[in-house]
Batch of 2 targets.
Target 1
Amino acid sequence: MTADIQAFLDAIGYERGLSVNTQAAYRRDLEALAAWLSRIGVTTAAAVTRDAITAFLQDQRQEGRAAATVARRLVAIKVFFRFLADEGRVPADVTGTMAAPRSGRRLPGIPGEGDVARLIDGRLLDGHRGSPQAAAREARDRAVVELFYACGLRVSELASLQVGDVDRDTAQIRCTGKGSKQRVIPVGEAALTALGIYLDQARPMLASGCPADGALFVNGRGGRFTRQGLWRLIVQRARAAGIRGRVTPHTLRHCFASHLLQHGADLRVIQELLGHADIATTQLYAHVDSSRLLQIHRDFHPRA
């Protein structure tokens, strides 16, 4: 099935313009299916039956996979077999009548504004805290957290930012999101100040002696800060700040949206800032702050 999977990935990358990360997620899900099928002696897509796919999904649940993961894998499998049927690579789409289960999607607990302030202000334990290099790293890390929270960026979006994507005169950044779609996001004063300190003082020191490719955030060797590095930075900083629960870059994206909503921002505006293609995705945040929505109804509805 390897050739069929690659043909499918090539097609969705070219025709639908899906991001590299989305294509990688499809690949992982389909390769998991292919590996499971090979263990029961099924090596071609044409030999796959609906019962085999059902058994695979059941096995995934028994292994303890989350409902959201199983639901996502079924979606990937359905899109894959629909492509194979359309291309004549299989006689029929065996997944055509399979309904994707509800993933039970919900947002995690959202840290409060005070927690985010501690995350921004907290300093990691560092034996060389007094060195200029450590001060440069702290300035970089603070700018990273400020920008995550100020703009609601995905980790891949922040990792791919170039210095030229920051317009300090207009207080905006330009980022490339899913499907290679670009959007412009305002940057608040606190984040802009942190970015200015980092760009003027810290980045030249961190990138010293290394060939610069224009990456906005660089590591201690002057190379581009990776997605994995950004994850470690946020997790370690949250732990050092004493914030309970799991805090990741995506948590700060949730905080960005939820705190905007709490302060009265329109859901459509939040959708635009987050780069959501569908307002239904953004509406998840409305459920987090249902008490505020109830208060708005009481305050403004004529018969409330």
Target 2
Amino acid sequence: MMRPSRQNIIGIVGLGYVGLSLVKSLFERNFIVIGYDTDENKVEKIRRGHSPNETIEDSELVVINSSGRFYTTTEAKELAKAEVVIVAVPTPLTAMGNPDLSLLERACVEIAPHIKSETLLINESTSYPGTLRDFIVPLIKQNQGDGNSKIYFACSPERVNPGDVFYSHGNTPRVVSGLDDSARERVHAFYSEFVDDVFVASTPEVAEMSKLLENSFRLVNISFINEISDYCVSQGIPVREVIQAASTKPFGFMPFLPGPGVGGHCIPVDPAYLLQDAADKGKALPLLKKALQSNRSRSSQITSFLKTELGSLKGKKVLIEGVTYKPNVADTRETPAEPLFESLMAEGAQVHWHDSLVQNWNNSESSRVSDNKWEITLVLVLHEDSDVSELIRHSEIIFDFTGKLPMESGRVRLI
């Protein structure tokens, strides 16, 4: 295994969707990359050339592994060789829906003794404004091996869009900042090496807040269009045609599409960090709070709609098609399929699920569409390889949340 010297070496803490996408981009710009993760199974899988997610193909990983410019480790001490260290660990929610910084805290404590003087330390993990200044910096300094070393603290909230074949690190503008002028200059220079457009924010808090604004904006608008969709359905008005008509206005309108609720690691999560931070500071954000509540209650709204339309759901054979949070990505984090599954089960329905990209989910296996004649099929997500004709053939009635199924069969209802 290669052991590089400290020159043009980048350490990445966390080899998930964000971390591995960084590996790919930095490798393409001829950096030497050390990938650090505490998950031994994941590290071993990556070493064997098997990508754990869609941000990088197995064939690409094999090439990167064999280049001599990338190696993975579960030893934090290897980060001492890096001149830039990027923290890219998840910042999820607890089971109660509250912000959870435990993984970020653990990462900081583990790497702190091994971050050498003059290192540029960048946080890409999403969190509330002040995370770099008030959370990460104290943790690093408290756990440093050498309390006198000079570390340049900076941040650049990640903008990874899993499954996107067009936008990558290179052509997605990035927002960066640092605790002082030197850190801002260094983080700007670093990202400019592999990102076309870099915006330098005046403070880390501006950069951190910008990420929360981006996804809070999306949550509010998605929750709003779901509300509009419910109204249109009740009045027999085709909501997608309404959106198409409104989209002809060349200014002042941005189209959002209805669905079963929003999932993933950003949109339903980041607003919770902003709400918690605002509450801690005695500020109320009622519109954002309502949007988050609306998204979380979407499953019960759908279940109530089905009961109104079809009567009792007890004993009905129901198939949920698509349990990932978005098309063509095998990621089930915060998927709206989960609360919907539970809500339907609570009504006594016989609920099964199918997803061509997911074999095991919630301690159960993906059903075959042909296993039953489904009385109700709920199409939440369609992947490129989803068999639409099979769904129609084996379903009595389909409620389509994607707007992609053909209407000719007479069995499909758009939601």
